[in-house]
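seq:
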Amino acid sequence: MAHKPSAAADLKKPVPAELEGLAQPHIDSFDFFLGQGLENVVEGVASVEVEHPITKHRHSFWLENAVIGRPTKDDASSGADRRLFPRECRETGSTYRAPLSVDVVWQAEGLMQTQRVTRKLGQIPIMVKSRACYLRHLRQDELVEQKEEANEFGGYFICNGNERIIRMLVQNRRHYIFALRRSAFHKRGPSFTDMATLLRCVRPDESSLTNRCHLLADGTAVFAITLRRAEFFIPAGILLKCFLDVSDKELFDMLVLGAAKVGELLLRENLFIHVEHPADKLQLGLQMLLKLYALANRQCCEDNPDAPTHHELLLPGHLLLKFMKDQLENCLDAATAQMKRDLEKAPELVNLTDEQYVQKACEKMFDVGQKVEYLLNTGNLLSKSGLDLSQATGFTVLAEKLNFHRVFCQWKFYNETIKSN
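struct:
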């Protein structure tokens, strides 16, 4: 008679790949957020300069070494296991999270030496089964030992004991020039036509900005630039001259004959942010104009923004990268703004080379972890810039864990959405 393996022996194996694959895009994006993505964000946060009115020395402040740790128990006794597991957060109604720290670095003008202080910016919620989670790589029997589901595949957050999922949002395909006709474009002004070209630009840290080029009734064109949710329109001829000191005739030749010119960098933070060299920005602006006039002359078809080939998905880790960069910029601005206020009131008492003073000024940095947790709990995005997103609410949903089959169907739907896009 053949020996039948025990149930315990059946569990001494990893979670089936078919199940783990359901949440793998979520987990991979969050792993990227914890590693290379966070490094890209810190590199992308611009430095801030502060000038001392008495010494006239300028000091540059920037951020380095942003690190998110692993969940630990704050009240664990000496020698006890300090690891915090998701099950404990569900039972206690707490958040499964880990500390965020960042170095504030500054340097006086003309000096090679830098100074730094480390600042803690709260606790960031951790995705279950990500590389910061202790359930990663556990076998089914080890998951059961931790009082988790044997088929736990993660991909969600635990906030105040509730399991929350970041929804995947459909966005325009990056770095592709769309030729569009929209009656809503007429509302921009009395001379605006229904034709425009659109380009969504994305940096390595996943921060993005959408630029548009509108055709006017007199045949000229204007570029639309968005600053803190407000739109500004700049004539195309003036904008292109900002990159290079050229005449109108030279600009015309570049449009008609395609001659290449190298320009100086301008509007780095608001126009074609995914390219660095001025010549590339100039040529990209010309390509938007060429496609716009081709649309007006019926030399090209209108692009269909609803076609799957023109879509991409905003993954959870990428959304958090956008939000994290916005919050870190606000933190650095808050600290340097406090220094500037102190310099206005009593400059003789301010020493920008004193680590204790800078440490005190950095206390104005707010708790980034609370901001992220609010986003996950409510699904509402709090940002002055809007992060180049078409919505400000509905980013998260409650995981339907009434039974395993409902969970499976929910994640299967997300997975099929990825394949269809």
